[in-house]
Design brief:
By secondary structure, the chain is mainly α. It has two domains: 17-85, Arc Repressor Mutant, subunit A (Orthogonal Bundle); 87-226, Four Helix Bundle (Hemerythrin (Met), subunit A), CATH 1.20.120. It is built from eleven helices and three strands. A three-stranded antiparallel beta sheet has the order 1-3-2. Strand 2 (73-76) and strand 3 form a beta hairpin. Helix 4 runs antiparallel to helix 10 (203-226) and helix 9 runs antiparallel to helix 10 (203-226).
């Protein structure tokens, strides 16, 4: 007697749903710092932040340790924890990334295969559709797939290892920038220019297009996050997003 087995296609689970409470607290804080919602120099009151977020201080302390390792905050004896990430650091990181990414793009143009060009063409096509429909979350995923594809095509393992330390910053910056409709349009034009240079296997054009893209987006981040008027800062659920309730922590 044969069994009737259902073969319904299931969509992948949203990775954000698999994160524990500690990850959510860390992501929310990092996003707020990189976006400028929590400005450079702001003192972070652990007890008040934990109360506002509805969590204990345990996941918050772990998140703060990670943020300090990432160079976004510093803890000083008898003075507390304050945000150190500022416009100068953001610009410095963008310039460093531009130097590395542009060289990777240059190498990719000399090594890219027909199959890799076809894959990037598909990604850019999906970017165009997501830009038209305003799917910011999907654009972030496609954006990272585009850059990862170029990294793979380049074969530059050493340069990729150097870039690993910036991935956290890059992801949070994309989340911030791609929420803006005009920025999504600019990014699409720039990604198309990078792709066309790679498809022509033109190393000079690929290097130049990638450098221009990263530098321009870095400056846009600085302008949007730091060159705007800052009001009084209260680190609470409105600033960080509705991260959790006190009862969620036990499930993390």
């Amino acid at each position: 007697m044969s069994e009737n087995i259902a073969r319904t296609r299931l969509d992948p689970v949203d990775p954000s749903l698999l994160k524990g409470l500690r990850e959510h607290v860390h992501d929310a804080l990092r996003r707020a710092i990189i976006s400028g919602e929590i400005p450079s120099g702001a003192l972070l009151n652990e007890r008040q932040m934990a109360e506002d977020l509805g969590v204990s201080t345990t996941p918050l302390k772990e998140a703060l340790r990670r943020l300090e390792n990432e160079g976004l905050i510093v803890t000083e004896p008898r003075r507390g924890t304050r945000v150190t990430f500022d416009a100068a650091q953001a610009e410095e990181m963008a310039l460093a990334r531009a130097a590395l990414e542009s060289m990777i793009a240059r190498m990719a143009a000399t090594r890219i295969t027909d199959a890799e060009i076809a894959t990037l063409r598909d990604v850019v096509g999906e970017m165009g559709l997501a830009t038209k429909t305003g799917e910011a979350a999907k654009l972030i995923v496609l954006n990272e797939a585009f850059h990862d594809g170029i990294h793979a095509a380049s074969g530059c393992r050493y340069l990729q290892r150097i870039l690993v330390g910036q991935r956290v910053y890059d992801h949070a910056t994309r989340n911030f920038l791609l929420a803006d409709v005009e920025e999504r349009g600019r990014a699409l034009v720039e990604h198309n220019a990078i792709f066309e240079a790679l498809a022509r296997r033109d190393p000079d054009a690929a290097e130049r297009a990638m450098r221009d893209h990263v530098v321009r987006s870095g400056r846009q981040h600085v302008k949007a996050a730091f060159e705007r008027r800052q009001g009084p800062i209260t680190v609470d659920r409105a600033t960080l997003g509705d991260t959790a309730t006190p009862h969620q922590e036990q499930a993390s």
